[in-house]
Amino acid sequence: MTDKSARLFEIDNRIAAIRQEISDLTNRSSAVSGQASEDALAQQIEDRETQLAALQDMREALAETSE
Fold it and tell me: How would you class 47 by CB atoms within 10 Å of its CB: exposed for 0-12, middle for 13-18, buried for 19 or more?
């Protein structure tokens, strides 16, 4: 496996993990009550979405480079 392939694999795994975290947080947010809990979960979801966007950009940039 080339260095580029290994990095893409690592990024893909991180993207999958964050997507799963977002799904889990979304499910938790539908089960909680109370504004403070809802706000905390909303902030966590927003943070994960920011991380996801950054990883997707990183992956796209890496995929476009030559080996």
Answer: middle
The predicted-structure confidence for 23-41, as pLDDT tens digits, reads as follows 999 999 888 888 888 899 9
Per-residue H/E/C for the chain: CCHHHHHHHHHHHHHHHHHHHHHHHHHHHHHCCCHHHHHHHHHHHHHHHHHHHHHHHHHHHHHHCCC
What is the pTM (predicted TM-score) of this model?
A: 0.88
> Cα–Cα distances in Å, from 67 out to 2, 28, 47, 61, 62?
8, 42, 32, 12, 9
**Both tokens assigned to 3:** 């260095």
